[in-house]
Design goal:
The chain is 19% helix and 32% strand. It has 216 residues and is an alpha+beta fold. It has a six-stranded antiparallel beta sheet with strand order 1-6-7-8-9-10, covered by helices on one side. A four-stranded antiparallel beta sheet has the order 2-3-4-5, covered by helices on one side. A hairpin with an 8-residue loop joins strand 6 (139-144) and strand 7. Helix 1 packs antiparallel against helix 3 (198-211).
Length: 216
C-alpha cells in the first residue's frame, strides 16, 4: 500500500506537467527528408455489448469450456448468473490465420459474475487445453498488425480512480515468449504522452498496473 501512495502522486505530477507543457521541448530544427514509412494496419475497437453478436456456435462452445457462463440460465439479463450470451462476452482473434477456438481474446462485461469492471482474458490452446496467457482489468481499444510475427499488437485501456479523479491509461502490448508483454503507455486521459518522456512515464504506469493488480 505504501508503494501505491508513492507511485500515484508521481504520476499525478507527470500528468500535470504533460498538460501544462512543463517538460522541455527542443527548438524546431531542419527536418531530414526520410523515406516514407510503411503504415501500420490499425483496427480501432469499440464495444457495445447490447449490440454485440457471435459469429456462430464456436463462441458458446468456448464459453462452456471455460466455465464462465451458465448454459441453463433462462435469459441474458442476470449478470450474477450470466448466460452464454454476446450481451456478456465478446471474442477477438489475435493470431493471423489461426482458428478462434485455439487463440482468442475474451472481453467480459462489467458486472459479470459480480466483478465490477471489464476484464480482458487471453487464451492459447496447448496440447488440446486452453491456457490463459494474460489477464487484464481493462478493455481492448486497438489491434495493430505487427511486423515479422503472426500475432497482433494490442492497445488496452486501463482505468483507476484516485481522490475522486479518474485516470485512463492507453497502453501498448506485444506478443513475446508465449504471452503479451507491456511495451509502453501512449496516452493518459486521451492526451498523448510526449516522445521525450514516454519511457519514464511508462515505467511508472507499469508499476501502478502491477501494484493495483490491473495486470494478472
Amino acid at each position: 500500500m505504501k508503494k501505491n501512495k508513492v507511485l500515484i502522486p508521481i504520476v499525478i505530477i507527470i500528468i500535470a506537467a504533460l498538460v501544462t507543457g512543463y517538460f522541455f521541448t527542443k527548438k524546431p530544427t531542419k527536418k531530414k527528408v526520410d523515406k516514407p514509412k510503411e503504415k501500420t494496419e490499425i483496427q480501432l475497437i469499440e464495444t457495445d455489448f447490447n449490440a454485440n453478436t457471435f459469429s456462430g456456435t464456436t463462441e458458446i462452445e468456448l464459453l462452456k469450456e471455460l466455465g464462465v457462463c451458465d448454459s441453463t440460465a433462462p435469459n441474458d439479463k442476470n449478470l450474477d448468473r450470466p448466460s452464454c450470451s454476446p450481451r456478456f462476452f465478446r471474442f477477438f482473434n489475435y493470431k493471423k490465420n489461426a482458428p478462434l477456438r485455439n487463440n482468442f481474446i475474451l472481453l467480459l462485461r462489467s458486472g459479470v459474475n459480480g466483478f465490477p469492471a471489464r476484464r480482458l482474458l487471453i487464451f492459447e490452446r496447448e496440447n488440446g487445453k486452453l491456457v490463459k496467457t494474460n489477464g487484464f482489468i481493462g478493455y481492448i481499444i486497438e489491434k495493430r498488425a505487427a511486423k515479422n510475427t503472426l500475432y497482433d499488437d494490442i492497445v488496452i485501456r486501463f482505468y483507476e480512480k484516485y481522490y475522486e479523479q479518474k485516470y485512463f491509461y492507453n497502453c501498448l502490448f506485444t506478443w513475446k515468449d508465449q504471452r503479451y508483454e507491456f511495451v509502453k503507455c501512449e496516452a493518459i486521459n486521451d492526451i498523448a504522452i510526449k516522445p521525450e518522456v514516454v519511457d519514464s512515464v511508462s515505467i511508472e504506469i507499469n508499476k501502478i498496473l502491477i501494484e493495483k493488480q490491473l495486470i494478472f
